[in-house]
Design a protein that fits this description.
Blueprint: E1 5-6, H1 10-15, E2 19-23, E3 26-31, H2 35-44, E4 46-50, E5 55-60, H3 64-71, E6 84-90, E7 96-106, E8 109-114, H4 119-129, E9 136-139, E10 144-150, H5 154-159, E11 165-166, E12 180-185, E13 188-193, E14 202-208, H6 212-223, E15 228-230, H7 233-242, H8 284-290, E16 298-304, E17 315-317, E18 326-335, E19 342-348, E20 358-363, E21 366-373
Parallel strand pairs: 1-3, 4-15
Antiparallel strand pairs: 2-3, 4-10, 5-8, 5-9, 6-7, 7-8, 10-14, 11-12, 12-13, 13-14, 16-19, 16-21, 17-18, 17-20, 18-19, 20-21
Helix pairs in contact: 2-7
């Protein structure tokens, strides 16, 4: 039996009375108070998340950029230093092995952040694909903690933080979305990125694991006057659902390609070498073929027209009429705390995917009416 792993913040979660659950081999906080309270705090003030279960993989060397162009579907050689990019690692047949965020920390140094459940698969794929490139692939996960502050008050919370200094300028407000900068505490380095998984403004701290408890407590203190609360996996899931963000194992998996999920934009078929020739990358042939065919299904957003929420795995029906055929399946669904009605994401047949189409979901034997709506469900105020 595999032992459940503890994040560097486990003692903090216990002290705060968190409900802890196994998740991707880790003991993680599901909630501290209530799911809705934590969700609402992130939408209106700020939430503090322990994401130390995520995988951090270093890719360093003169061939790092060229290697990532080959190993991943995105154009990573075009990523600016201190920039970040959402991308995917796919199999030869185009199936998604994981969705990732890649940070370019220096000209020849990148950090690949993988989902906890896919850490081993991503690491193995990168190491296998590194053959022939002047690059070193290292697993930095065990020594790295990841803490996120998300919400409209996130900037104020981070500005009020004591003990940490920004090493790449001092104007945090100027840090762009999907960019990062160096930070430090008592001579110990780290990274601060303006990224997140909630649909809100926010920051993510990458730092040495042994510094995580100190930073967590400092952020709790800095956020006390700004309405910050610790938030668990339940709130993170409902927030990302409202924001229309895919979750691996639900909207994405080994049988899904990026085009099915409406994420064809991350597949850079326009990658070229110095002579303008198309760059080969793993999965290119399959993904190029799929780019010119409609596919058998499409990911859509569904707004519930009744009170009962669709959940992952529920059948999507052509209508609420008796005997209506199944034309898809829900991948994620829940009541929306922010919007006040049920929402879901689902794969349906292309001919039933147009905005405004009336469908139904079989909710425990009874059809519940739903309507196809654009993703995301929620847009944060600008």
């Amino acid at each position: 039996m595999t032992e459940t792993r503890l994040t560097p913040l486990h003692a903090e979660h216990v002290a705060l009375g968190a409900t802890l659950v196994p998740f991707a081999g880790w003991s993680m906080p599901l909630r501290y108070s209530s799911d809705v309270a934590e969700h609402t705090a992130v939408r209106t003030a700020a939430g503090l998340f322990d994401l130390s279960h995520m995988g951090e993989i270093g890719v360093v060397g003169p061939g790092a950029a060229a290697f990532l162009d080959y190993a991943l579907v995105g154009n990573l050689s075009g990523l600016r230093v201190l920039g970040a990019r959402y991308t995917m690692v796919c199999a030869e047949d185009g199936g998604v092995l994981d969705d990732l965020i890649v940070y370019r920390l220096a000209d020849e140094a990148f950090m690949v952040v993988a989902n906890a459940a896919n850490h081993d698969a991503v690491l193995a794929a990168l190491r296998e694909r590194a053959d022939g490139f002047d690059v070193t692939v290292s697993d930095d996960s065990a020594g790295t903690a990841l803490i996120a502050v998300q919400g409209p008050a996130a900037l104020s919370v981070v500005r009020a933080l004591d003990g940490w200094e920004v090493l790449d300028g001092d104007d945090l407000a100027a840090l762009k979305y999907y960019a990062c900068l160096r930070i430090g505490c008592a001579g110990r380095p780290g990274w601060l990125a303006r990224t997140g998984y909630t649909g809100e403004d926010g920051f993510e701290f990458f730092l040495a694991s042994d510094l995580a408890p100190e930073l967590w407590r400092a952020l709790m203190a800095a956020g006390e006057s700004h309405g910050l609360v610790p938030a668990g996996l339940a709130a993170r899931d409902s927030l990302r659902l409202e924001a229309g963000m895919p979750l691996y194992g639900h909207e994405l998996d080994r049988t899904t390609n990026p085009q099915d999920a409406g994420l064809g934009r991350v597949v850079r078929l326009d990658k070229t070498d110095a002579q303008g020739r198309p760059l080969p990358f793993v999965g290119r042939a399959a993904l190029e073929s799929r780019a010119h065919s409609p596919g058998a299904r499409r990911l859509v957003g569904l707004r519930g027209l009744g009170r009962r929420a669709a959940r992952a795995g529920y059948p999507v029906l052509a209508s609420a009429a008796p005997g209506a055929p199944q034309i898809g399946q829900v991948t994620s669904g829940a009541p929306s705390p922010t919007l006040g009605y049920p929402i879901a994401m689902a794969y349906v047949t292309p001919e039933r995917s147009a905005e405004g189409t009336e469908l139904a979901v079989d909710v425990r034997g009874r059809p519940e009416p739903v309507r196809v709506v654009p993703l995301p469900f929620y847009h944060r105020p600008r």
